[in-house]
Amino acid sequence: MSGGEGSRLWPVSREQHPKPFIRLDDGRSLLQHAWLRAADIAGVDEIITVTHRDLFFKTEDEYVEVKSKCQRDITNHYILEPTRANTASAIIAAALHIAEIYGDDTLLLVLAADHIISNQVAFRDAVNEACILAETGKLVTFGITPEGPETAYGYIETKGNDVLSFIEKPNLEKAISYCNSGDFLWNSGMFCFSAASVIEEMSHYALDIVSATRTCLQQSKQTHGEGFTQLNLERKTFANIPNDSIDYAVMEKSHNIAVIPCDIGWRDIGSWSVLSALSTRDHNGNSCEGDLFLHDVTNCHIQSEDRVVAMTGVSDLIVIDTEDALLISHRDSSQNVKQLYTRLKEQNHPAYKSHNKVKRPWGTYTVLDKFDGVKIKRIEVNPGCHISLQMHHQRCEHWVVVRGIASVTNEERNFTVNRNESTYIQAGHIHQLENKENTPLVIIEVQTGDYLEEDDIVRFE
Fold this sequence. Notes:
Layout: H1 30-39, E1 46-52, H2 56-67, E2 75-81, H3 87-102, E3 107-110, E4 115-117, H4 120-134, E5 139-144, E6 155-159, E7 162-167, H5 172-181, E8 184-194, H6 195-205, H7 207-219, E9 221-225, E10 228-232, H8 235-238, H9 246-251, E11 257-262, E12 266-268, H10 272-277, E13 287-289, E14 292-298, E15 301-304, E16 309-315, E17 317-321, E18 326-330, H11 337-346, H12 350-353, E19 357-360, E20 363-371, E21 374-381, E22 390-391, E23 395-403, E24 406-410, E25 413-417, E26 422-425, E27 431-434, E28 441-449, E29 458-459
Parallel strand pairs: 1-2, 2-10, 5-11, 13-15, 14-16, 15-17
Antiparallel strand pairs: 3-8, 4-12, 5-8, 6-7, 6-8, 9-10, 17-18, 19-20, 20-21, 21-28, 22-29, 23-26, 23-28, 24-25, 24-27
Helix pairs in contact: 1-2, 3-6, 3-7, 6-7
């Protein structure tokens, strides 16, 4: 499941570049770690990712990077949501789809794309135990042995493999009592069950979700690519699926739940303070990334993408500097970053949605500058790729080729533009940019007009 925004990890996490794509110290993203974790389980030859359809190309690119590390040929299957939704619809869509393809008794291991698990051997052992219980018809959840009184996680009250109750994120006093009792585990949000079992339990407790999802699947289309298949969930019927979590919809109501207690080095990367705790620290307790100059700085987490960051005489801070946004927070307030993200989103500020550099199926574009009636972009088109045939109602575009050779369509004309040459696209003209060469094409695009947002586009393919 790879659907969350990761609002507490803003400004690195954005709506179009959410938490699973954040890179760790080893250079791999959380999503890549999750894929490799699943691929390492014996017998797995297909991994299904449920995510937003706008993130498909980013996700596939992430997997291509790490596929060579796998000893087996893994097929990637995608269930693509038209809008962000909760975990209940994601899981039941996968279960219904899998049951139709492989049969009702197929076991599903449900993982999240934003977790860290440092003990892979213990994780595999826990999965094997979960499969044994799941084959008896149980809905199995993974409970994590608490390392301390954590208030950011939900808890499971247990007796052996039996679940007595699920508890929401507690206050510190209750979290301490839970840890001292020895009867409580952290709720990891990972599950194992057969397709038939989860469909049956959800049909009993949340039939509206099952029925609406089944209708949506009947209207959805499946397509195939090189090494992957994708099921695009139909937008109108998807909007009719009630929005609920698997915990609320089923797990907290069902009497057919089992738990596997495990100590697997699990972490849900829910805030900058959690992420910084996993980073390498210097002799002053600082975790650092970027071009930094520090004096009398202790116990801080500092990241900078491009600019020099200088700090002096401070401690216990989170400082995250990106190209277009700067976050400064006390460590103890890192959970409140979500409130800032929410305010940005309510005001439709572009900083909540995407970075200045945006990845597309054909390459990338980077917003270099924007002022009254003008936006300047650096556009890079990968070899053999092209931007869709399109038209803009409200803006004109000036293209200057700075690297490579551009193949341009402008209305009825098809022509090439070489390095140090330029061309002009008038508003209302149908046009296309293509790179037919074996090297990247880089252009500087200057947009002019009264409205310069990305939704001023009509695509013809």
